[in-house]
Design the sequence.
């Protein structure tokens, strides 16, 4: 069974551009989570989608947004990129029930120049 | 507010030595508790989880963790470390009802041959 897949593996953008990151969850999982792992800051919760709806949002500005498609895959969009957006962005998926384990993808490394 | 503390940023042990990684949490009720491992350039892999019941939890790769409610701790242990265990280890708390994980800042493990 395929795990959580993320694309692209690496993404290089310049300040002010937009970035789109993609995530395909494990088959049968309806929840998708996005985390930012910036150097020295650990993992910070960004967004949670379940059944196509945004359910929860971390303490990030509105230029971080996303969506979940009918097949439960998800996109994370980051507009007006800033240098400090450079980080590893991790996607996780789970069944949409309380306490279900989150399984992580390998991440997308975003570099903003 | 919920929080997770991993007091050791770096730990170095010799191969074959025992290991204990500390994790303390702050939460109003019994949380869901997790340990994940992240190898360089990789996503997070679940080592073990605690939801309820037996406070000593066995995981993959020979790891175990013990939930101590009185100390608000969930320390990870391994009796004999292998060179392949060198990685970064994250403790996480699952907030019941919100599906959101809160991660500690991680402990980077170095194994000496």
Sequence:
């Amino acid at each position: 069974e395929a795990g959580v897949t993320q694309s692209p593996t690496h993404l290089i953008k310049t300040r002010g551009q937009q970035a789109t990151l993609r995530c395909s969850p494990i088959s049968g999982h309806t929840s998708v989570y996005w985390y930012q792992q910036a150097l020295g800051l650990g993992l910070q919760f960004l967004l949670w989608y379940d059944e196509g709806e945004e359910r929860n949002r971390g303490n990030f500005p509105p230029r971080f947004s996303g969506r979940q498609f009918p097949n439960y895959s998800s996109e994370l969009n980051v507009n007006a990129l800033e240098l400090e957006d450079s980080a590893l962005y991790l996607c996780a998926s789970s069944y949409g029930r309380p306490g279900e384990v989150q399984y992580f993808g390998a991440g997308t490394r975003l570099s903003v120049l | 507010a919920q929080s997770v503390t991993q007091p050791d940023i770096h730990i170095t042990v010799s191969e074959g030595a025992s290991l204990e990684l500390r994790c303390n949490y702050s939460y109003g009720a019994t949380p869901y508790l997790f340990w994940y491992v992240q190898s360089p350039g990789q996503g997070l892999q679940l080592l073990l989880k605690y939801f309820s019941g037996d406070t000593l939890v066995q995981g993959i790769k020979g790891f175990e963790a013990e939930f101590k409610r009185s100390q608000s701790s969930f320390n990870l242990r391994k009796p004999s470390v292998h060179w392949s265990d060198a990685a970064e280890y994250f403790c996480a708390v699952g907030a019941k009802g919100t599906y959101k994980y809160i991660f500690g800042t991680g402990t980077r493990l170095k194994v000496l041959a």
Summary: Chain A touches chain B at residues 4, 6, 31, 33, 35, 41-43, 45, 48, 50, 55-56, 58, 90, 92, 94, 98-107 (CB under 8 Å).
